[in-house]
Amino acid sequence: MSAPIFDIDPTELQQRTSLKWTTYGPDVLPAWVAEMDVRPPRAVQQVIVDAMSCGDTGYPLGAVGCDEAFADFADWRWGWRPTLRDSVVMPDVMQGVARSLELLTAPGDHVVINNPVYNCFYGYLPWVDREILEVPLGADWRLDLAAMERAFAGADGPKPTAYLLCNPHNPTGTVHTREELATVAELANAHGVAVVSDEIHSPLVTPADTFVPWLTVDPEGRSITVTSASKAWNLAGLKAALAFGTPQTGELLRTLTDEVTHSASYFGLVAHRTALSQGREWLDQVCREIEGNRVHLHDRLAAELPQLTSVPGQATYLAWVDCSALGVADPSAFFRTKGKVAFSQGASFGSGGEQFVRINFATSPVVLDEVIDRAVRAVKGR
After folding, report:
1. Beta bridge partners of 131
2. What fold, for 10-39+280-380?
């Protein structure tokens, strides 16, 4: 068996200067933003070192092979090979989402999202002058298809022109089934609703579950998928993403200006290409270690903090935890001040998230246990 990937010593982690490790003081242990406590695959490290060593630090030409590497990866992982002609490079996934919605909708249009959902959706949609229409997940944390049908038809409020899908779902870790997505595609096509699917977490699915790419259920409609290697291989600082369309939306993507399609980092494209093509065994091991951490976190919370309820996610490295039994206004602030551990604030993920926290458990077992220990001490020391 290979050596553990989540093995970085806490003192080394504290030397990092990225967002995760510098937002709060050195006395606060961060388990919030979606950065993993890992080193990228050796091949990715080496390709960047080699480029720097020979001064290969210029402008990218097209996708630098990143699109072909993703198509090969998608075929290997999910049996789906996207059409490269209908794809373009994006600076990152949320820029890709924003630009896609600008292509498919008009200013002031309403866009459906399923709260609780990735908190950046709430920032980027207003920035591109689109209105948010929340359609909450069901009580089982799955898509509420009946509510989606009513929303798409405009029965409960404004008629939307687009749906922003989080696939798989962040923060709950829900993996949408093919049947669920096919129903959504039928509803979207019937009601003239375009679909943009954010699939950044798609490689990070438990071994027992299967990710379904959106474009496999709606290959001809008004749909665009935006994805990246950044989450699965921890490459957020090396900016790059890809948008894939159908024959009709691919034509729209090709109208985007150089300002958008030439804004990815050359190093980002090189690193992502290498991760997709040479980091597959690394990814499989990371997914196994993430699943071990997921089970460990769930088991310890159940045993030591039974008043908190953790949603049993099937994807990502993020846990969605109900803290309503604590009776505090902001659980994330409670844990940060009382336990010196930082979780993401549930309210930022939309209506209904106010009593939740999102916990990032993509770290070593040693750090994860310290995260849990601090949470336990905070609650028991009240």
Report:
1. 110
2. Aspartate Aminotransferase, domain 1 (3.90.1150)
**Which of 206, 184, 42, 205 lies closest to 113 in space, CA to CA?**
184
CA atoms within 13 A on the CB side of 55: 0
Q: Which residues of 120-133 are buried (b: 16+ CB within 10 A; e: fewer)?
A: bbbebbeebebebb
Query: Tens of pLDDT along 9-62?
Result: 999 999 999 999 999 999 999 999 999 999 999 999 999 999 999 999 999 999
pLDDT in tens, 76-103: 999 999 999 999 999 999 999 999 999 9
1, pLDDT greater than 60: no
| Placement of tokens 């290959």 in the chain | 219
Asked if the 66-278 domain carries CATH number 1.10.645.10, the reply is no
The count of other CB atoms within 10 Å of the CB of residue 98 is: 21
CA angle 97, 79, 38 (to 5 degrees): 60
Domain boundaries, the chain: 10-39+280-380, 66-278
* pTM for this model (two decimals): 0.97
Q: End-to-end CA distance of the chain: give it in Å, rounded.
A: 43
Structure tokens that stand for 148 in this block: 């989606």
Per the listing, tokens 């008009």 go with: 106
